[in-house]
Amino acid sequence: MAFLEQNFRDHQIELFMGLRNPGSFIPKLLMSLPEQERADAIRNTDLSCLSWIGMIEDIRDLAPGVQITLWGNEDTPFIWGDIIRALGDLSEDTPLVDEHDLLLSLLDETGQKEVLELSHQDAEPSEASLHENMARIFENHAKPGEIEEELDLPGWSIEVVDAFTELYEQDLERLGSIPGVRVLKP
Q: What are phi and psi of 154, to 5 degrees?
């Protein structure tokens, strides 16, 4: 990022990145390694101190002019339109064709119908109300096979995932308070 900032100093450089909960990211990453490398990584790494904060702070320190936009990957179906508008530098009220298709792909038929009815209402609901209703529909109508993830790492329990999830949510809040960093949320 520092190299880009230096070489394009007459332009605004922006970084857009979806972050993933380390509770689900770490096991997927480790299971992709050969067994010996995985064992070495587990033995030689303090996984409890992994956080996105350090990486983002390093980018801010090395490339202070770069504007950073982040979001939690698990929120992507709910904020897909916001992500696209941010990437395209569009105003928040710019309508997008098929904005909810990603969310629709995760829902059963009843949920899809509810989302389409909600998104085609004549009266525009507030953004907060829309996100709240989308979350409710998702909770009631998500297809389990589309949203559940197997974490097949020996010793990786629901308690470990919950601990990482709590830290990750704290990180997202903290990241939003760093100057030059914007965190998109539902």
A: -55, 130
How far is residue 82's CA from residue 151's CA, in Å, rounded to a whole number?
Answer: 29
Separation of alpha carbons 102 and 30, rounded Å: 27
CA distances to 10, 30, 100 from 181, rounded to whole Å, are 20, 29, 25
* DSSP-based three-state secondary structure for 142: strand
How many Å apart are CA 112 and CA 147, to the nearest integer?
15
Half-sphere exposure of residue 107: CA atoms within 13 angstroms, side-chain side: 23
Q: What is the distance of C-alpha 37 from the center of its chain?
A: 28
* Token output for 29: 């990453």
- pLDDT tens, N- to C-terminus, the chain (186 residues): 888 888 888 888 999 999 999 888 888 888 888 988 888 888 888 877 788 999 999 999 999 999 999 999 999 999 999 999 999 999 988 988 998 999 999 999 999 999 988 887 766 667 778 888 888 999 999 998 777 777 677 667 788 888 889 999 999 999 999 999 999 998
